[in-house]
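Incident review: delayed structure delivery

Summary: a single-chain prediction request sat in the queue longer than the usual turnaround. Root cause was a stuck worker, restarted by the on-call engineer. No data loss occurred. The affected request and its eventual output are reproduced below so the record is complete for anyone auditing the incident later.

Affected input:
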Amino acid sequence: MDTINKQRELIEKLVKSNNKYKGNEDLLEDFCSETYKRSYSLFDNVNIKDIENYIAKVANTAILTVLKQNGRVRRRENKYISTHEVLLNPVPAAKTQEPEVVKAQEPAVIHEPFVYDIADPRDSFEEKIVRKDLLQKIVDIVLIAQREDPSKEFLKIFYLRYVKEFKQKDIAKEVNISQAEVSKRLIEILKIVKSHF
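Output delivered after worker restart:
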């Protein structure tokens, strides 16, 4: 958990120091998540202090991607320009009235933008933190149920089913009870957990 917080602090610091962040502060979470998705494998393999300059470059690319996705920049003549341009003459010129011509309605063609980036299947670090906290709360609930009725082996059944991903028949062999009893206890565990949410 401490490592994830250090990663988040580094990414947030680098995003906030980027010159494209100013004026787009409302997209901070998107910038941080996109940067993490593009650099998570580095965090797993390299010390944070050794990769700060590289992550800054990744953050710059991630910020541009998020700004494009939100329609805040577009590419024109090999450079990115803001879509929030200020008009030189804020008063529009008077329009001449043209005769109205009624045409048959053409079918609408919707062009989906091409996406060249491969989506990262891993969760962002915010999702990981939330998932760990939720899992810890569920485990605590199951532990309390186990202490109240140790003969039902709720914790072992929970562990085998949801952590080891055993099937009910395999749990039945491991715990030495019938498969029907395993099913009943799993339902009981779910009811206990749901009652605390």
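Verification: DSSP finds seven helices and two strands in the chain.
Action items: add queue-age alerting; document worker restart procedure.
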